[in-house]
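Usage

Read records sequentially. Each one opens with the input sequence:
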Amino acid sequence: MGSYIVKRLLSAIPVLLGITVIVFLIMAMIPGDPATAILGSYATPENVAKLNRDLGLDEPLVARYFIWLGNMLQGDFGRSFSLNRPVLDEVTERFMATLILAGTSFVLCALFGIMAGVVSAARQYGWADRGITFAVLLGISILSFFLGMMMILIFAVHLRWFPVSGMYAIYGGGDLADLLHHLVMPAVALSVVATGVVARLARSAMLEVLRQDFIRTARAKGVGEGRVVWRHALKAAMVSIIPVLGIQAGFVLSGAVYIEMVFQWPGVGRMLVDAILKRDILLVQGGVVIVAACYVLFNIAVDVAQSLLDPRIKT
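and closes with the structure output:
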């Protein structure tokens, strides 16, 4: 197992390097002069030339990339000009808020998606199966940001059950109860589509396992149906379900961008949108690289968990 983990970590290095190249080139290809956009009404030729020197924008493209990469490997992600603070500090602080939102949504989609898929497969063609299938198809068809806006309209504006936006109350609050009160709507809106996908694929995986010989043998020995489904069949089906969870984790993390904008959640997604509008190049590059690195590491953790359930995967 140790060698397998090391092998997966080494394979992530070229992926991360490729991400840095793509992010750097995308930011470099944005039309217009970054220094002029940053300075705005103060964009005199002297100020533009000085800012280009300060940011290293007067260097050749390849040299700029290796300077940025070398600094980043030393832990220096640069300094955000719009916020006047280190990029790493800002991204770390914002990422904690995104991790709370995306982590809660992932737990919801994993828990309810697997439960719905198992029940649907165990009651195939029954009323429970039909009801869950209808709910799953409806959930997959709804756009998360549209669902978020409808939830704000219904539960925040009309019913006044939940706050409209933010992570904590402006006045007072700040405790765990206040956080959970603000977290309910964005987490649910973000998890609906992922829950539907997990439920559908969990149902397919369970149906395949329930037709196998060892399940028929367990039933013939008199093992209870609940134990057969939840202990034996689900354990075997998790080998196929875990990769789906890894994919949905990426979907939830990327989907947090527009959900954070809808609910004004102070996370990385909202930070990146603001940084792009302000042409804060180093903040955008650093934020994308850190989020992508976390996603790659999570996928490695998913692969390790899958290999623990099925040792044949390591070969």
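Summary fields computed downstream for this record:
- The chain is about 75% helix and 0% strand.
- The beta strands are 79-80, 85-86.
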